[in-house]
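During the first year of the project, the team set up a workflow for recording each protein of interest as an amino acid sequence followed immediately by a discrete structure-token representation. This format lets reviewers and collaborators read both layers of information side by side without switching files. As required by the reporting guidelines, we include two representative entries from the current panel. The first entry is reproduced here exactly as it appears in our internal archive.
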Amino acid sequence: MNEGFTVYFENRIMEALYGKSFADMQALLGLEDLKETIAELGDTSEDTHLKLNLANRDPDDGMTDVAYEKGHFLLLLMENTFGREKFDAFLKNYFQRHKFQTITTEQFIKEYNEELIQGDSAAAKKIDINRWVYGPGIPANCPVIVSERFNAVNATVEEWKKDVPAKNLDTKNYTSNEWQRFIRSLPEEVSKDKMKELDDAFHFTASGNSEILGVWFEHVIKSEYEPGYAALESFLVNVGRRKFCKPLYTFLSKTPDGIELAKNIYSKARPNYHSVTRSTIDEILEWK
């Protein structure tokens, strides 16, 4: 739940700064990441529980975005069920009581039942906290978020698929969230010519935003778009977050040429990676 609170408050801050439509985009990107992680782990895997069983395991085995994103959506479900005013009052009291302390999952659930649910059986059933904390996957009552701004991005990508030149697309006021959705919505296979067209119009390879680069480089690898290789190497050498490294090295490892490129990059990058990242990439590349 700790990580879930992190994302929940990040989104509240984004909403206060940039508006609810921006925060909704942020939440949906997180949900997409969560779905990918659960697909990788398996939707019945115990590692998709909010409370993990790490007995006799390396705690780093639990380092996925399940805690962050699934935890966030559980808190959002609580807010939606009780209303922000009541939920904020609960949170303020909760943090005041437990500042500078740690508590267990079971202590949190006990306090949730006593201070927030307060005997409201309908609300307890609607949320079903045990299903979220001790069950796998994404529960069916996960909050649904609709983003008109993302719908507009999807429509723009469809225009491009129908051969509207990239330079003629209406992307003038796009935020980083919209660019991420744009790139994520591209076809699985994009020709090198189409990659160049997109890059010439939007300069993705030269972006200074790691979130945009992370999703763009996936297409660089899959399309074997060589003009992006130097920037890909620079990114992997200088940005060591497992969130970005794991998918990129995974895509590189799928072809002989990709493995060669990955090992060349990794030999330069590995000494500066965090041990958690090194452990993950060592396994992907069978590094010895």
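The second entry, processed by the same pipeline in the following quarter, appears below.
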Amino acid sequence: MIQVTFYREKTGEYTGFRMEGHAEFAAYGNDIVCAGVSALVINTINSIEAFADDACIQKIHQEKDVVSFAVTSRPVSREAELLLRSLVMGVESVAKEYGKKYIRVKTKKNKEG
């Protein structure tokens, strides 16, 4: 199962996420749930790097199936916030379509926020 955790400030702005695991919806190479969520995540990271001026950190552990991403500058730019909200909407749509057996989504407040 894919687990996606989104991080938010107390003010409601998204600051990052962590994705881990595999959906196991279908055999490797045919898993449309994994492919869809991975495309959303990669596009979000690339778009924030290309279109926003925020300082960010990302960690990708292919062996552990983990991607983490955080905007470290505050306040988060409007561009990065919009792109993160778009990711939330996309991942939640996949979760709604395919169910909790394959993907779970949660949101946590930042410790500082």
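For the second entry, the following points were noted during internal review. Helices lie at 32-51, 78-98. The chain is about 35% helix and 30% strand. Both points are flagged for discussion at the upcoming steering committee meeting.
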